[in-house]
């Protein structure tokens, strides 16, 4: 099974992780919990009327964990290419990944040290959020000058995940569910939404 490592557990990172893990790829999120969501109150996230950013984050964390995402509280100090994949160093320990999704907010240091191309100050990505380094994605605030909105970051993370899934499955992939899937997939969470 391919292993995806996501660096950053805000809107972009958790969205990417939700989509990859839910669709069969083992996914680990490393995060230092400095997400801007802790400062926000969301009135503009479609489908959510009014919600404290931390409450939104906690729901997203539980949602990702429900599908099996592993969340680790640790700072990633380095991401480097190794063989066909990547080595991610967190709190002094190395971890192997087939794909890496950078979702570190406005901090672009890891993309720079990995050797990703930049367009001015921004990490240069295509519409799938893939960087110039094959298998490395950059999402959310780090790829945008000012369009810093939670829903855009979440969309970026989903786009990266679907591209990874399309690569793994060898065909264009989308994650569609129907109402009959809901009880089985969400269980107790269905009662909370
Ligand atoms: C005061 C304020 C109010 C806001 N209000 C709104 C609003 O009303 N509506 C709205 O849509 N948006 C709002 N935003 C913006 C919104 O919070 C951001 O657009 C969104 O959080 C960006 O998501 P992200 O995943 O790209 O980055 P973030 O949510 O910032 O997440 C990045 C994560 O990466 C982690 N990280 C960074 N480096 C490392 C590393 N080396 N190793 C491990 N982890 C790392 C950080 O700790 C953080 O948890 C607001 C922001 C602020 C500051």
UniProtKB/TrEMBL annotation:
Residues 3-32 form the FAD-dependent oxidoreductase 2 FAD-binding domain. GO terms for molecular function: oxidoreductase activity. It comes from the Archaea. It holds the Pfam family Pyr_redox_2. Residues 58-152 form the FAD/NAD(P)-binding domain. Keywords: Flavoprotein, Oxidoreductase. This is FAD binding domain-containing protein. It comes from Halogeometricum rufum.
